[in-house]
Amino acid sequence: MKYTAPLADMRFALYDVLNAPAVWNSLPGGEDHTRDLVDAVLDEGAKFCEQVLIETNQIGDEEGCHFDKDSKAVTTPQAFRDAYNRFVEGGWTGLCGDPKYGGQGMPESVGYVFKEMIESCNVAWGTYPLLSAGAVDALVHHGEEWQREIFIPRILSGEWTGTMCLTEPHCGSDLGLLRTRAEPLGADAYAISGTKIFITAGEHDMSQNIVHLVLARLPDAPAGTKGISMFIVPKFKVERDGSVGERNSVAAGNIEHKMGLKGSATCVMNFDGAVGYLIGQPNRGLNAMFTMMNTARLGVGVQGLGLIEVSHQNALAYAKDRLQMRSLSGAKRPDKPADPIIVHPDVRRMLMTQKAIAEAGRALCFYSALQVDLVARAEDAQARKRADDVLSFLTPISKAMLTELAIECTSHGIQVLGGHGYVREWGLEQLMRDARITTIYEGTTQIQALDLLGRKIMGQQAAGLRHFLADVSAFCATHHDHPQAGTYVRRVGELASEWEALTQEIGKRAAQNADEIGAAAVDYLYYSGYVTFAYFMALEAEAVARPSFAGTAEFRDAKLATVRFYFERILPRTLLHAAGVRASAESLTSGVEAALA
Asked: How far apart (Å, rounded) are the C-alpha atoms in residues 244 and 247?
């Protein structure tokens, strides 16, 4: 399997479509993040991914991770360890970290571009730094200063890695049922006891220490989610002065044997009185957990994007080379015994679906990352709040849409290759297996939909939606009669109005029957996602038509062809989902018990 970082497309999205430099320059220290510096970082990141990381993907799938029952140790593929060492040596672990703790201070929006490259090359390997980033975010926002000073620099240096330990055998996403206990030991230490499952990177041999962030209950904690606290529990004990001691009483009980992501160690973790420290306030662990979870959810959306991109690249290369049958409109390669399959309309449909989703999804991911930058660094409190509302609103859309569409698009990749796509040698079937988990972990698509409609729309009075639609409306008003993009702009404006109307319709029905939210949620999420993608596609069409656009005519024409394909072939899916939103919950409640008996 091959991969070339799509740097031209990435820079187009970052600079031309989203005008990221203007955002950076508006933030403290942003003048240091020049385009030349960012381009140099992306060039070096591309080299690491193209020359080192892509070679580890199929190796990791074939070798997997191995668990030793006696020592409780997990061995990762040697190629993973070698790549991680190169990653650390290159300083990539601290790319976006706070310089106060040894990071390089680059914007998250730059880090997300690099993340896309990583996820295209090896999603399984990428889980290790992804979980570490979540742990750092939780400590930054909720940890005590001594905790930040001791743990963050070692995670940013790559010396240590992090995990999230949330799920337990008897409860999945319903964390109110968790039973892991935290008993006070004195001097602000606690003994943590319980079992966690599905813990990504819970045990491995790629770092010197592993920092587990664990949800548990204090002895006097109230029942349910209001009684959950979060604790730092390192694999090797860490004192408040930073010294590292003996092995803590936390160990892997087993690793899961999975459909995909075989190089990512997914562990059962047993805590047997392991020594840990409280993060934040007692019984407020969900606040810290959601900080980690939202970071991870955005990262999983980037996983979906990376899988779509690499599947497209390999399917496109095959379609240009594979000879089969003749074009219906006449031979395109009369010098050959048959035409390449890329001449066939439905092969083009599959390839263009991958391409359009990747381009729209890339803009969404990078735009979301710019909101992360604003939330973290903007000096104006109102600007931070607005960005946080928009980011909160877009997170479930990004996570769910890009992962669900990754399954569709990696399936298209297999289909383009035909029988060669189904066998292991070409690598396309691995991409689909790896994609399958992305719609499940860090909150299933259904949970994302409920989060979007139930919490972000109904619970927060649609604050993020209102801000986002204000930007959409302003763009549409400005470019309504644009000679190249006007058709797309007007369609986005129509759909934005329908989006508001659908939201109001659900709100009225839900006031009479709360089940209407659950019945409409997934269709509402898809509808929201396709309209959001359409907005970013219209932005692309306007961007390539500007007099200041410096790209080639071929690049411009390719973008416009992709935009047209999206609006004519993919955006009509909103018709289906709008109908689903408008359907009554009755078809899911009345008589269904008998049908499912």
From this structure: 9
Cβ pair 373, 29 in contact under 8 A: no
Nearest to 316 by CA among 198, 242, 412, 381: 412
- pLDDT for residue 449: 98
In 3D, which of 77, 82, 83 has the Cα closest to residue 60?
A: 77
Contact 559, 356 (CB under 8 A): no
Instruction: From 151, 146, 126, select the one nearest 136 (Cα to Cα).
Output: 151
- pLDDT over 90 at 11, yes or no: yes
**227 neighbors 181 (Cβ within 8 angstroms):** no
Q: Do β-strands 209-216 and 160-165 pair in parallel, antiparallel, or remain unpaired?
A: parallel
**What angle do helix axes 285-321 and 123-142 make, rounded to 10 degrees?**
150
Hey, what are 166's tokens? 């949330």
**Domain boundaries along the sequence of the chain:** 449-589
35 contacts: CB under 8 Å, gap ≥ 6: 15, 21
pLDDT (0 to 100) of residue 590: 87
Amino acid 504 reads Q
Which residues are CB-neighbours of 109 under 8 A, at least 6 positions away? 14, 20, 23, 24, 366, 369, 370, 372, 373
Query: Looking at per-residue confidence, does 151 or 597 come out higher?
Result: 151
Separation between Cα atoms, residue 340 and residue 17, nearest integer Å:
34
pLDDT of residue 292: 82
Q: Active site residue: 442, 516, 540, 542, which one?
A: 442
Q: Write down the residue that tokens 């009185």 correspond to.
A: 273
Contact of 362 with 306, CB cutoff 8 Å: no
Segment 482-503 shows an average pLDDT of 97
Show the beta-strand stretches assigned E in 312-462.
none
Centroid of chain to Cα 307:
11
Helices 486-512 and 515-544 sit at what angle, rounded to 10 degrees? 170
Name residue 191's beta-bridge partners.
183, 275
CA distance 356 to 379: 36
* pLDDT tens track for 362-394: 999 999 999 999 999 999 999 999 999 999 999
Orientation of helix 573-582 relative to helix 515-544, angle to 10°: 160
Provide the strand spans (E) within 128-169: 160-165
Q: In sequence order, which residues have a C-beta less than 8 Å from that of residue 490 and are 6 or more positions away? A: 476, 480
Query: Rounded to an integer, what distance in angstroms lies between the CA atom of residue 446 and that of residue 522?
Result: 6
**Tokens 């390192």 appear where?**
234
Looking at residues 221-232, what average pLDDT do you find? 93
Work out the average pLDDT over 150-167: 96
What are residue 18's phi and psi, to 5 degrees?
-105, -10
Tokens 């069409």 sit at which residue?
541
Residue 175 has what DSSP assignment?
G
- Say whether 498 is catalytic: no
